[in-house]
Each structure stands twice: as C-alpha cells, then as structure tokens.
Amino acid sequence: MLKDQLETPRKSFMLAITIPPADEIRGIVKLSRQWEAIREWEVGWAVHSAEWGKGYATEAAWQLMDWGFKHLNIHRIVAYCHADNAASVRVMQKLGIPMAAGGIVLKTNRPA
Asked: 72 with 60: CB under 8 angstroms?
C-alpha cells in the first residue's frame, strides 16, 4: 500500500477514519482510479462494527469524493456493494449515488 502512495500520478488514496478525542483508527476510506480514459474512480469504505450507524462512513466518503471532484478532475465516481448490504446502500443513498442493477452505483461531476 505504501508504494501505491508514491506513484505519479496517484492511482489511489487511502485514508484512516479516526474519531476524536482518542483518534484511534476506526476504519478506512479509499478512492481508486478505475478507468483513466473516462476519469472514473471508485470510492469504498470499511468501518469497525462498533462504529456502524454513526455516520462515519458517509462523512469520510463524502469528504474524499468532494476532494476528488475538486482536485483530481474526476468525471464519475462509482461504488459497489452487495444489494443486501442495507448499511452500505444507505451510505450510498446519503452520498447521492443512485442504486443501479447488481449493486453498482454512480455519481457524476455534472449538474443534474
């Protein structure tokens, strides 16, 4: 993972999710380039089960997606989850990513 952070241009960004005041790592959020030609990236997250339902995945993904659209010239961000993973489906809905067939979701960097 560390060698990935040294690539130029970077193909992925993985950040820790920490919660004050302890600032212990409670999860991760990642943005990965999927298809360079169309400027498509994937966002993903994993949060410790003790922190589920507290909005940490949504907040972390939102911040990273916003940063990506502003600084990486991203056209589209996708996310994937199993259709039965209700928690991740809710996160995607909160991020404004519409659900498509098979659990594939998309968000584009263009006005609605």
From this structure: no
